[in-house]
Amino acid sequence: MRYASVTTRLADLGGAKWEIHSRARRMKAEGVPVLEFTIGEPDVPCPEDLMQTAARAMMAGRTGYSNGRGENGLLRALAARYSTRRGRVIAPDQIMCFPGTQTTLFAVFMALVEAGDEVIVGDPMYATYEGLIR
Asked: Where are the chain's structural domains?
């Protein structure tokens, strides 16, 4: 069986990239003061009104999948906000919302980067960059 070329790019990455994250979590659990720069997890609590809105939506039956591009109301709100901020019209169909950084990075790199392209990233870098840019 032949697999897609992306599997070749990811084949030898293994889990070593996440060892730093796992170690930081263990240290934190042991009471060691650690600043984690491995994932983009918020260090502030979620706003109460957002949690209440989410809870009401779930209690009203909003527990299934949403539109893969983002909810229409959210897309319209983002289009309006960024149209105002950028001083030009941005339509809702020009916006995509993703459920997290890894999904976003995967989509962007798959859309823009070809084999042999040069990609410049900072160091230290997000653990998944290497697999995406190979």
From this structure: 5-64+100-133, 69-97
